[in-house]
């Protein structure tokens, strides 16, 4: 009984941790987009946008693997 509870709690902890990592990467990506749009031309902003989403994908992949 306790083993099952601990196992499920551990899985929940892992899922929440992964979600927080992905959310943090998502927010960081949009901050970079906003900074690039404020400080540079449109092409630089688009490049930052694509780079930011690549980082989100990488963070999500790494979070799932841990």
TrEMBL record:
GO terms for molecular function: actin binding; phospholipid binding. Gene3D superfamilies: Arfaptin homology (AH) domain/BAR domain (1.20.1270.60). One of its GO terms (biological process) is cell projection assembly. Residues 1-66 form the IMD domain. InterPro entries: AH/BAR_dom_sf (IPR027267), I-BAR_dom (IPR013606), MTSS1/MTSS2 (IPR030127). Pfam families: IMD. It comes from the Eukaryota. One of its GO terms (cellular component) is actin cytoskeleton. PROSITE patterns: IMD. This is Metastasis suppressor protein 1. It comes from Papilio xuthus (Asian swallowtail butterfly).
């Amino acid at each position: 009984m306790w083993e099952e509870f601990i196992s499920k709690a551990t899985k929940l902890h892992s899922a929440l941790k992964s979600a927080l990592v992905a959310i943090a990467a998502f927010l960081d990506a949009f901050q970079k987009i906003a900074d690039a749009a404020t400080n540079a031309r449109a092409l630089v902003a688009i490049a930052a946008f694509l780079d930011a989403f690549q980082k989100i994908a990488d963070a999500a992949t790494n979070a799932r693997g841990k």
